[in-house]
Amino acid sequence: VVFCGINSMDDALSPAQANETGVVEQIGHQATLSLMLHLHPRCRRIVFVVDKEMADGGFVDGMKTMLALLEPQVEVELWEGVAPAELPAKLVGLMPTDLVYLLTFDHDKVGEDAPAADMVRLVTRWSPVAVYSSLDFYLGKGIVGGMITSAFRQGELAGQMALRILSGQRVGEIAPMTRSPNQYMFDGRKLKQFYLNP
Question: How far is Cα 155 from Cα 153, in angstroms, rounded to an integer?
Fold first, then answer.
C-alpha cells in the first residue's frame, strides 16, 4: 500500500503495517498565518471561515494558540458554517485591518451542501480584504495564496514510491515522507490587487 493525504503518522502506520509507505499530509496553517501577518503588518483580526464539521473546539484553540505565538495583538473570529446567503453582508462589513483565512467548507450550519468552488468564489467576490488559504483547490479562484498543501505534489511523490516498488525495491526500504511537500504559492493577479510586492 502506498498512501497519500493521511493527516498523521499515527493514522498512517503501525509496526504491523510493514507493507505500507507513502506521503503524510500536514496543512501549513502556521506558515500561512505567519505569511499573512508579514504581508499585512496592520492586521488586527483574522476571520476564519470554516465548515461546521471542522469548527470543533480543539481546532479553534489551536489556531488561537498559533496566532498568540505569532502576534498576540491579533484577534481571532470564527465564522462557522455560515449560510452562503448570509456571507455577502458579513464580508462587506470587514475592516481594512481584517484578513480572511478560508478553510475547508462543504456544508453550512444546517447541513446544506456548500461546494468549495462556489464558496471560495463567493467569499473572494464580496470580501474587501485579502483572503488566504493553505488549500490548493482554492488557488486561482480568488485567494492571494499561502503555504499550499498540494494534492498533486503528494500524488506525484506517492507515484514515484509506487514505481520504485514495481521496479523491485522492498516497501520496508522506502521510508514514509513525514514532512508534507507544501510550497508557498500565489495568484499574481491578487498580489497586484492588494499592492503586495512579489
Answer: 5
Tens-place pLDDT, residues 56-106? 556 667 777 777 777 778 888 888 878 888 999 999 999 999 999 998 765
Sign of dihedral through CA atoms 135, 138, 139, 145? negative
Q: What are phi and psi of 47, to 5 degrees?
A: -95, 120
Residue 77: beta bridge partners? 47
Q: How many CB atoms sit inside 10 A of residue 17's CB?
A: 12
Cα distances (Å, whole numbers) of residue 89 to 21, 103, 124? 47, 19, 13
Alpha carbon distance 97, 3 (integer Å): 41
Element (H, E) at 151: helix 151-166
Cα angle 140, 143, 148 (rounded to 5 degrees) comes to 80
How far is C-alpha 180 from the geometric centre of its chain's CA atoms?
12
Q: pTM, whole model, 2 decimals?
A: 0.84
Please list, in sequence order, all residues whose beta carbon lies within 8 angstroms of the beta carbon of residue 167, skipping any fewer than 6 positions away: none
